[in-house]
Queue: 3 jobs
Job 1
Amino acid sequence: TGLIYLGLNMTMIRSLVSVRIQTQFAVNWRPIFAVCVMTSAILLFKMAVGLPSEQALNQVLMLAAEIGIGGVAYVLALWSAWWISGRPDGPEKEVARAARNILSRTKPERADTLG
């Protein structure tokens, strides 16, 4: 169903703002790729583990594991695709810049710069 909605949304965007579907794919290929990797990772995990028992705790743990695995797979796939494509301007670059700024503020000072 996700692919159907993707096609419908891209068709609607094409008719509203005259952006070709090929152009939309060219701009959005990294998140689409990351969603495919995330979905594959979750499905592989579910096939390897099997269905949880009917106990609510097991189902909650399974859901938490799927969310974690899916999130990590998505971020790694998106980041890898961005890096491989030459780190173009976009949201990934802004996140990298923000992370670099945060990390530079939280780094402890080196001993040779204290005195």
Job 2
Amino acid sequence: SLKRWNISTCTRIARKQNKGDVLTREYLIEGMSCSHCVARVKNALLTHPDVIQAEVTLHPPRAIITLKQPVNIEHLQQLVNEAGDYTIKPN
């Protein structure tokens, strides 16, 4: 039988791979209009020391972020602001 994949499944796999607890959070990103914007937002998020992985997409405009520990959204907003005129919001 085929296994259904979802965020919960992926989070459990990430926990096993990293041999520790990780958190996966999804956020809406406003202000992106092209692949260059996606790359800028992703690179900005990856500069945070608690961000393990960031998957940023244009359609839909979102970021799925894997974290070592909870991160204040204001810190993430500061990072994306430094990358350009972008806004990050909880999904």
Job 3
Amino acid sequence: RQRQIVATVKAAGHIANTEVQELAGVSKRTAHRELSDLVQKGLLTQVGTTGKGTFYALRKGATKGPKGARARSAAKQDTAPAS
């Protein structure tokens, strides 16, 4: 479901909870959990606090996702031998 959500955000620019409900066929609470998880992972950012106007957009620099180029380079630095 999360891949589906991210793909939709990449195509449309943003997504709302109701759109996730329709897209994935899930309840309001499940849609919220999925969106919150993507925000927690750093892929999406929430625009607005609560209510009808709230939507989620791709976070700047997050196009590669949690396992993208930035994560790989950070992992390389962590495993590099100390001088």
